[in-house]
UniProtKB/TrEMBL annotation:
<feature type="domain" description="Gfo/Idh/MocA-like oxidoreductase N-terminal">
    <location>
        <begin position="46"/>
        <end position="164"/>
    </location>
</feature>
<feature type="domain" description="Gfo/Idh/MocA-like oxidoreductase bacterial type C-terminal">
    <location>
        <begin position="201"/>
        <end position="454"/>
    </location>
</feature>
<dbReference type="InterPro" id="IPR000683">
    <property type="entry name" value="Gfo/Idh/MocA-like_OxRdtase_N"/>
</dbReference>
<protein>
    <submittedName>
        <fullName>Inositol 2-dehydrogenase</fullName>
        <ecNumber>1.1.1.18</ecNumber>
    </submittedName>
</protein>
<dbReference type="InterPro" id="IPR006311">
    <property type="entry name" value="TAT_signal"/>
</dbReference>
<dbReference type="InterPro" id="IPR036291">
    <property type="entry name" value="NAD(P)-bd_dom_sf"/>
</dbReference>
<dbReference type="InterPro" id="IPR043906">
    <property type="entry name" value="Gfo/Idh/MocA_OxRdtase_bact_C"/>
</dbReference>
<dbReference type="GO" id="GO:0050112">
    <property type="term" value="F:inositol 2-dehydrogenase (NAD+) activity"/>
</dbReference>
<keyword id="KW-0560">Oxidoreductase</keyword>
<dbReference type="InterPro" id="IPR050463">
    <property type="entry name" value="Gfo/Idh/MocA_oxidrdct_glycsds"/>
</dbReference>
<dbReference type="Pfam" id="PF01408">
    <property type="entry name" value="GFO_IDH_MocA"/>
</dbReference>
<dbReference type="Pfam" id="PF19051">
    <property type="entry name" value="GFO_IDH_MocA_C2"/>
</dbReference>
<dbReference type="GO" id="GO:0000166">
    <property type="term" value="F:nucleotide binding"/>
</dbReference>
Length: 457
């Protein structure tokens, strides 16, 4: 099974019916390059809240403000909250330290979830159950089983969720690369090499006082109880198990494999599907290097970064027609190799002879639009990604980066992490969504939530 002909699911109208049916119909008919929902009248604009006012939240929400009104902010760090209010809302937003108070508000249509990864699933599930649509940063989940729950709740509630993999809305590079593949310009696709750079290293990080204004227990949330650690070196480098650096700890994230992997592995799998091949993984094997010792997949030190720093992994797919190599070295991006040509794409370039050949043999006019599933194409990258979200909220379609297709990609990222932690091949049943013949590896598809921070169903 592949995603080339993935259908779209229509849902019941949204709770507040913020746009009339005629307006939604006109948005559904936007031609490429038309005016987006950001031009809608003030009374028609959505109202949204930002949950998590750290780095990525403050980078992404200004784009969202082009399309909707940001009215509330939430963070467990008072400094982040106040800084976000001044930066994003001229000091006029409603401020919260508890996101559940936002979910109780009937006048908020959607939420942007920009917390650390280990909080994504709990907030998103509860937001959907509260009747909110959402934009959630990648990676959507900390585990594969969390993704199963998200998909289930999305189907049951019909909420629209856009995952923050904005490379899916890059028309000039990533979607053009996918169109080249779909049009057969590489011949038969044989290999995909995904390079996502090495993970971060740290020295021993000592215990430290929790910064003033940070509610550390609530920052940890569903993750295991842990002491706060912080180190700043004489050359102004800093290391911590908290803000920004959380992604280098398996307790809160998955390292490079779910950081850049959620972007580039995603595009690699979309390329396999665009080629008409089976994109369901059946095995992952290879080598990895960590800076701490592991026993049964559990790091044995808690004073330094513990996610994989180096890796060379091979993913095989049902059907056996193509393989994927995931590496830490080389130029970050995706190399697609077919029996008639090859192309390389990242955020800065799209190169290869099939790209050069477009000068005298261009793609069909609708080739890129087909990759974007015939939905309106406005702007590029983040603006286009938000425009697609608003369009899909209006029409109740699945967005370009919906939870179902994203989790198919994230399965590879998470299974790669399990492979690295255990140091052995992982065999996967894509239909049952279970690990084959490895009870320990299968148990790593889920993690317990800390008491008091379970998902409220």
């Amino acid at each position: 099974m592949n995603r080339k002909n993935e259908s779209f699911q229509a849902h019941a109208p949204s709770r507040r019916q913020f746009l009339k049916t005629a307006s939604a119909a006109s948005l559904a008919a936007w031609p490429i390059g038309s005016t987006t929902a950001k031009a809608a009248s003030k009374s028609e604009r959505l109202r949204f809240a930002l949950i998590g006012c750290g780095g990525n939240g403050t980078r992404t929400s200004p784009v969202g403000k082009e399309f909707a009104d940001l009215v509330a902010l939430c963070d467990v760090d008072e400094g982040h909250l106040q800084r976000g209010n001044e930066l994003l809302c001229d000091g006029k937003a409603d401020l919260y330290s508890d996101y559940q108070q936002i979910l109780q508000r009937d006048d908020i249509d959607m939420v942007q979830i920009s917390t650390p990864d280990h909080w994504h699933t709990k907030i998103l599930v509860e937001a959907m159950l509260a009747g909110k649509d959402a934009y959630c940063e990648k990676p959507l989940t900390l585990t594969i089983d969390e993704g199963k729950l998200i998909r289930k709740v999305q189907k049951e509630t019909g909420r629209v969720v856009q995952v923050g993999t904005q490379q899916r809305s890059s028309f000039d590079k990533f979607n053009k690369a996918l169109a080249i593949i779909a049009e057969g310009r590489l011949g038969t696709l044989k290999k995909v090499t995904v390079r996502i750079n090495a993970g971060s290293w740290s020295p021993e990080i000592p215990l430290a006082d929790v910064p003033s204004g940070l509610d550390w227990d609530r920052w940890l949330g569903p993750a295991p109880k842990a002491d706060y650690r912080y180190l700043k070196t004489p050359n102004d480098r800093w290391y911590t198990n908290g803000h920004t650096q959380f992604r280098w700890w398996y307790q809160y994230s998955g390292g490079k494999l779910t950081d850049w992997g959620a972007h580039h592995i995603d595009i690699g799998l979309l390329g396999i599907a665009a080629a008409g091949l089976n994109d369901q993984p059946v095995s992952i094997n290879g080598t990895a290097a960590h800076d701490v010792k592991f026993v049964d997949g559990i790091p044995q030190q808690d004073d330094r970064y513990n996610t994989a720093r180096e890796f060379d992994l091979t993913v095989r797919f049902a059907g056996g027609d193509v393989e994927m190599n995931i590496r830490h070295d080389g130029d970050r991006g995706i190399l697609f190799e077919g029996d008639q040509g090859r192309i390389f794409v990242n955020r800065g370039k799209l190169v290869g002879k099939p790209v050069e050949d477009l000068a005298h043999d261009p793609l069909p006019d609708d080739a890129i639009a087909k990759i974007y599933r015939g939905m309106p194409m406005e702007g590029n990258d983040r603006p286009a990604h938000w425009a697609n979200l608003i369009h899909c909220i209006n029409t109740r379609q699945l967005p370009i980066a919906n939870v179902h297709s994203h989790m198919r990609s994230l399965h590879v990222c998470h299974l790669a992490g399990i492979c690295c932690r255990l140091g052995r091949e992982i065999r996967w049943d894509p239909d049952a969504e279970r690990v084959i013949g490895d009870e320990l590896a299968d148990s790593m598809l889920a993690r317990p939530y800390r008491p008091g921070y379970e998902i409220q169903m």
